[in-house]
Amino acid sequence: MENKIYGYVRVSSTDQNEDRQLLALNKVNVPSKNIYQNRALGKGAGYERWAKGFNLKQTAKTLLFLQQHDIHNYEELERLTNEAVAGSDRLLASIKEKDARIKEIEALRQLIFDYSKTRKIYLEYKPPAESKEDGIL
19: domain range? Predict the structure, then answer.
């Protein structure tokens, strides 16, 4: 059976050129009939209208948030952000510690369970303790 080689060329906007990709495929001997090309033509007018409205709403929400939290400059926003990140890091470290402790407790629980199952058998096979009355210490 013959090995077939295929190529795929794609550009995502009208100002890009696919020639460089075609040259690379020709260098590795991909037959031109096996090269598939795709050119994305960009977004339509409906998308642009939606994006403008969406971005305007997001900007309004951001400004409202900044006003409600009395944030007036970038330094203040950065300070509050750093505090929030530090708090999040502390919580994450605490969660990891508690998770490790839970794993330790689970291991101890398993050991106690195993002991409770085998204790009776151990006591049956354990040699009897010798007393002082028998004269053996």
Answer: 7-42
